[in-house]
Fold this protein.
Amino acid sequence: MKLYTNKFYYGDYGESKHGAADISSPQTNKQEWPLWEIFIRSRQGLDHKHVGSLHAVDAAMAIENARDVYTRRMEGISIWAVESKHIHASNPDDAANLYEPSNDKVYRHPTFYNLPDAIKHM
Amino acid sequence: MKHLTDYILHLADNALIMGQRNAEWCGHGPILEQDIALTNISLDLIGQSRYLYQYAAELAGNNATEDSLAYLRTEREFKNCLLTEQPNGDWGQTILKQFLFSTYQLYLFEWLQQYQDERLKAIAAKALKEVTYHVRWSSEWVIRLGDGTEESKQRMLNAIDALWMYTGEMFIPSESEMALQIPLDRIYKQWDAKTKAVLNEATLLIPEKVFMQKGGKSGVHTEYLGYILTEMQYMQRTYPDSEW
C-alpha cells in the first residue's frame, strides 16, 4: 500500500514559487496523507456543496472519513471526494484582469427589467 | 425473566466496556479523521448500552436505573466478554478488537431482529445500522494494516496473538443464552466465515489450536476490568447521585 503520497493544496499561492498546480515541486512532509476536498449533498435535488477537506490515503478512506467528520449531524445523503491536487484554482494575482472588466458592464445584469407584481421569489 | 435480564445486561456490558475502551483514544488517534471515527463508534456503543440498560432496569425493578446498572455494579457483576475489556494496545490491536467484536455483534443483531421480544428486537434493528458501519470501517483497516508495510503487518500479527484467545468466549453459551436459545453456533459459523475472509484478504493467518479464555459472562474477568470500572465509576461513587 502506498502510504506516503505527496500533499498538495490548491490556491496556496505565495508559499510555492511555482504555484499550487506545480506537482513537480519538492514535497515538504512525506509522512502526510494526501488531502481531499469533500462535497456533500444535503437533500435530494440540491447540489453537492463544498464542506471542507480532510486527509485520507485513498478514495475509499476519504469517503469514510467524510462520513465520520462531516455527516455526524445528519448533514448529508451523498458524498463526493476529490483529491485536492486535481482542483485547479485561479490565481489571485490575476483577479484584476479576470473579474474587474465586468464591473462596469451593468447592462449584463438583469436589473433593467420591471418585474410584474404578481411574480414573487425573483 | 431472570435469564432475559441477565442476557440484556450482558449485551449492555459488552457495548459499554467496548465503548469506554474506545473513548480512551479520544484526542490520541493517529490522525484527526480517525480520532473522530473511533470516538463516533465509541458513542454508538455507549448509545446501544443505554437502550439496553434502560430495558434491563425496567426488568430488574428494585429502583434500578440505567445509571445504577452502569455505575454501581462491581467487577463480579459485570457480564461482558473478556475481549471487550482487553487493553487498546496500539492502533492495530484496537482495530482488530473492534473488528472481531463488531462482526460478532453484526450477526447476533441480525438474528435478534427476528427475536420474539419486541423491545430487544427494536434495539437490535437500530444498532444493526451502526454495527454494519463498524464492521466496514474496522475490516478495511485490518486489510490495510495486514496487507500494508512490514511493520503494520507485524503489529497485526502481535494483535492476533494478544486477542485471539478471547474470541472463543463469545460463542460459549452462558446459562441465560442457553435458556433463551441464542443460536451461538450459527452465529459462530457466520463470524468465522467473515473473519477468515477479511484476514485472508489482509494476508494474515488465523491461529489454530489456541486455548480459549472464558469467564467474563459469569463475572470472572481479567485484571483489566477493575481499572476500567475504577475510572468509569469514580464520579458516581465519590459524589453519589451527582448529575450534570
Summary: Chain B has a mean pLDDT of 96. The CA atoms of residues 5 and 59 of chain B lie 6 Å apart. The first helix of chain B runs from residue 2 to 23.
